[in-house]
Amino acid sequence: MALYKHGAEKRLREREHEYQIILDSVPVSLFHIDTNSASVQVNEVLAKRYGLKPKEFKGKTTRELFPEDADGYIKSDNEVLETKEPQIGATREITTPEGLRWVRLDKVPIKDADGNVTGIIGLELDVTESKRAEEERERLVKELEVKNAELERFTYTVSHDLGAPLLSIQGFANILREDLEHADKKNVENDLTWIEKSAAKMAILLNDTLQLSRIGRVTNPPEDVPFADIVKEALEQTTEQLKTSDVEITVADALPAVHVDRMRIAEVLVNLITNSINHMGEQSHPEIEIGVRADGEETVFFVKDTGTGIEKSQHEKVFELFYKEDESSKGTGAGLAIVKRIIEVHGGRIWIESEKGRGCTVCFTLPLS
Predict the structure, then answer these.
(1) pLDDT tens across 161-212, in order?
(2) Where are the extended beta strands (E) located within the chain?
(3) Mean pLDDT calculated for residue range 28-52
(4) CATH number for 329
């Protein structure tokens, strides 16, 4: 009897060995589990993915082997056992020694002669690269949709704002023709002055438009630079404006270093300082503060002024090309649109904190060095 038992065990080990050889010859991950989600056998490919050997799986439950992902695995196992139907094409994120991976998981029930399910054979195919490619494609499609919408708004804005001085030139050209016919020298001079002003305005608008379109395409290599040095450069470029407007400016002592296109970020600060000066209104002690603060784990730079402030409903609009909250204010309204584009090209974000009549704080983030 003992001899018979020994022979049976030997044949069983031989069959398991043959079965293991067959499993290991397949170049994808295969596993065999029982009705309790305990491992019967896995192949070398699957074991290697999890940093183990096939024998280390034998007899262990899914919860013992994969505690972080066990609930999802067991749920799908039970669905196969209850329905007695294969489960094909399910994708799942798994935890491996190499990090998170995406796999396609196919499970097929094993049935005995009476149709009872005695276990599950599964195939695990790594689809991480295709999943990443799909996510990248979706990201690019969304980005393209945003860019197309932005281009549509940009085209409308440019055509609208350039149309005004063009119509003015056309109008005064017709008037000029009439004044020339009547030899009205005084009015001819006046007509020419208006045409020149309109042409100059159109040139400024075209220049701002070109500048905005170049951001992101024509750049200087990013470098590690103390933000304080960039502030110093911006203040040097706005010295005359600060003096004539009698604005007091303060700069925080401890400013971090950033990894940026130095010239572009100096341009951001020049625009923000100029914008603050232009919207100070009538006050005896106008002030501008340049500083930094910590918002949780995020470092936020800011330019804060004591000016006229901006209504909350205008916080997003002021970043649109050529938008001006006050049509009588200086500039074309392109400054903040340019600033926003530069910050976003650097991977940062920009927003406004302000109330009408209570000053304005323009906040933005940048990559730190």
Answers:
(1) 666 677 778 787 888 888 888 888 888 888 888 888 778 777 766 766 666 6
(2) 29-34, 39-42, 87-96, 99-111, 117-126, 223-226, 248-251, 257-260, 287-295, 298-305, 350-354, 360-364
(3) 89
(4) 3.30.565.10
The one-letter code for the residue type at 41 is Q
pLDDT tops 70 at residue 6? no
Point out the domain boundary residue: 103, 126, 149.
126
What pLDDT, in 10s, does the model give residues 249-292? 999 998 999 999 898 899 899 989 988 998 888 877 899 999 99
Same domain, 141 and 276: no
C-alpha 186/C-alpha 266 separation (Å) is 46
Instruction: Give me the number of domains the chain comprises.
Output: 3
Same domain, 106 and 136: no
Structural domain of 288: 221-369
DSSP state of 112: -
- Between CA 353 and CA 361 the distance in angstroms is 5
Q: Which residues, other chains included, contact 310 with Cβ-Cβ below 8 Å and sequence gap of 6+? A: 318, 325, 352, 354, 355, 356, 360
Domain check: are 263 and 366 in the same one?
Answer: yes
Query: Do 158 and 138 share a structural domain?
Result: yes
